Amino acid sequence: MPSDSRTSPPARPMRADARRNYDRLLAAAAEAVAEQGAEASLEEIARRAGVGSATLHRHFPSRQQLLEAVFRDKVEALCARAADLAAGPDPGRALATWLRAVAGHAVSNRGLATALMRGAHDPTLGATCHAMITNAGAGLLARAREANAARPDVSITDLLTLVNAICLTVEQEPDAAAHADRLLTLALTGVHPVAAPAESGPHPADATKQNSLPSGSAMTWNAP
């Protein structure tokens, strides 16, 4: 019996008004998830977007599909941000700024990742988005290393793990975004003052530690 070689027809592009509604729904859903978590009311999301519930369900037949679209949209925005920052003159600042954007993305998810794992409509979404973020950050880190603004032994996995750990620690706090940004700044800059008075000199223990570091091992970050 010959195999069926038919393929599904390509999806038709959205009309301009449908595209506007889709974008409004994504923005409203992202805002609602940041405020209320992944169980935010679909009716409230439709109201914020200025559309009816029928329009929401026409674009997103299930809550899961809406949440996946929100997550994918955020990841694409982070990748676009990385590309913009890569064109800047200060690779160290670019990497630090992007890591702060990743932290902002993480603390605004509020249970989104857990909800996505419960019953993914697109089983490849997690791996795809992880690869996108990793690749975007790896490019910024490579530029920072070339500019001697990042240690050669630091990987993008190290940095993303650090950001994730910080965000998990503060996610239940009322001002999680500000606290995550402060902790990330401390992690990137260290706890020593930026510039010690020249006449005082380094603490003997600090001088010993500094002299024991291999050349080029320092990581420098300029807070944006």
Write a short abstract of this structure.
With 224 residues, the chain is mainly α. The chain has helices at 16-36, 42-49, 53-59, 63-86, 91-107, 112-118, 125-146, 156-170, 176-189, 204-212.
Could you characterize what this model shows?
The structure is a single chain. This protein is mostly helical. It has two domains: 18-61, Arc Repressor Mutant, subunit A (Orthogonal Bundle), CATH 1.10.10; 63-189, Tetracycline Repressor, domain 2. The protein has helices at residues 16-36, 42-49, 53-59, 63-86, 91-107, 112-118, 125-146, 156-170, 176-189, 204-212.
Please write the CATH class name of the largest domain.
Mainly Alpha
Q: What percent of residues adopt helix (DSSP H or I)?
A: 55-70%
* Average pLDDT metric: 79
Order of helices and strands: HHHHHHHHHH
Count of individual helical segments? 10
The CATH superfamily label of the largest domain reads Tetracycline Repressor, domain 2
Number of strands: 0
Question: How many domains make up the 3D coordinates?
Answer: 2
How much strand?
A: under 5%
Instruction: Enter the CATH topology name of the largest domain.
Output: Tetracycline Repressor, domain 2
C-alpha-based Rg, rounded: 22 Å
Low-confidence stretches: 1-10, 195-224
Descriptive terms for the model:
mainly alpha; Arc Repressor Mutant, subunit A; Tetracycline Repressor, domain 2; HTH-type_TetR-like_transc_reg; HTH_TetR; transcription regulation
Sequence-ordered SSE layout with sheet pairings:
Layout: H1 16-36, H2 42-49, H3 53-59, H4 63-86, H5 91-107, H6 112-118, H7 125-146, H8 156-170, H9 176-189, H10 204-212
Helix pairs in contact: 1-2, 1-4, 4-5, 4-6, 4-7, 5-7, 5-8, 5-9, 8-9
